[in-house]
Amino acid sequence: MEASNDLALMGRFIGAGLACFALLGAAIGVGNIFASYLEGAMRNPSAAASQTGNLFVGAGLAEAAGLFGFVIAIMLLLGIGAQ
Amino acid sequence: MRIDADPMHQFKLERLVPLDLAGFDISFTNAALWMAVAVALITGVIWLGANGAKLVPTRTQSVVEMFYGFVRNTVESTIGHDGLKFFPLIFTLFSFILTLNLIGMSPLAFTVTSHLSITGALAILVFAIVLFVGFSKNGIGFFSRFWPAGAPWWIAWLIALIEFISFLIRPFTLAIRLFANMLAGHTMLKVLASFIPLGLAAGGAGLLAALGSTIGVVGVTALEFLVAGLQAYVFTILTCIYLSEVVHDPHH
Asked: B91-150 pLDDT, tens per residue?
């Protein structure tokens, strides 16, 4: 029915917008990781170089969790699985 | 000239050579083409650097040696010395994903890793290898790694269930991490870039928006280069970590 199609479309777009709030968490998480790394590096500069590997792994993991929300938003926008 | 402002058009898979094998569509797509280009690039660069290697390295040889040494150090520091039997796998994964990511940064090329099918295949490969190594080393005792040692029985089963589920989710997170990063980056680049002709056409304050978007595109492109290298490294080091968990047996 036309009306329910429009409603579904509206629901999809609103859902896509709401799903993007997950990226807020991603930004805060990555900022946290780099902030702790910089704080530790200021206190102990010689040990900082050994932790850059862990730094990037942690940033990748935190970013990924936020990007899952982005993927959901894209899926809703493109109408994957919609009738 | 129609301005293609649709940011999703760049990810469209196209069949360059349609092929069909007993009902299965095995066409040579543009993704397959760029994967072949990546393989040729990697093989070519390494051959150029390593062929006729001298004791005092030439420039290309030095670059290849640095690359090799970096991956070898990563494998050795995460899995340990007997993890070097996984070195060819890790080197292939890292160089393949890095090259695919970087090829996607050039203007006319297709970003192969922005497709879940490609990253999913790589993640399934890694997960299958981890499972195979785990079961061949421990047999059915592989499942004992989920049971927390020293926890009271009434909470241990819950922790074991959570550990099991987060283990099963690993191939999905591996695949989606790489795919979502590439998808998000290139979509953002396309959307920002589409603001420039729109702003220029609008005139007035639109010119300011176009200028801002130009600076934004340059900045985001620089960020995307960083993300390309970073995501290849994160995929590789997570593979090393998962392998090191099954190679060493701290559990029973």
From this structure: 999 999 999 999 999 988 899 999 999 999 999 999 999 999 999 988 888 888 888 888
CB contact under 8 A, B180 and A56: no
Q: Of B235, B228, B231, B234, whose CA–CA distance to B189 is shortest?
A: B228
Residue B2 forms part of a structural domain: no
Please report the domains of chain A, with CATH numbers, ordered by start residue.
Answer: 2-78 (1.20.20.10)
Q: Which of A31, A64, A50 is nearest to B169 (CA)?
A: A64
Which of B180, B231, B234 has its CB closest to that of A70? B180
* Among B37, B65, B39, CA closest to B50: B65
Using CB atoms, which residue from A56, A64, A71 is nearest to B233? A56
B102 assigned to some structural domain = yes
Contact A70 B237 (CB under 8 A): no
Q: By CA distance, what is A50's nearest residue in B?
A: B77
Q: In this prediction, does ipTM exceed 0.95? A: no
User: Is pTM beyond 0.90 here?
Assistant: no
- Of B99, B102, B109, nearest to B10 (Cα)? B109
Long-range interactions of B138-142: CB distance < 8 A, separation 24+: B138/B246, B138/B249, B141/B251, B141/B252, B142/B246
Flag if B181 and A67 touch (Cβ within 8 Å): yes
B101 touching A (Cβ < 8 Å):
no
Beta-carbon count within 10 A of A3 CB: 7
Q: What is the biggest distance separating any 2 CA atoms in chain B, rounded to whole angstroms? A: 72
Asked whether the beta carbons of B142 and B220 are under 8 A apart, the reply is no
Pick from A56, A70, A78: CB nearest B234: A56
Mean pLDDT value of segment A51-57 = 87
* Strand, coil or helix: B208: helix
Question: Is it the case that residue B189 has pLDDT exceeding 70?
Answer: yes
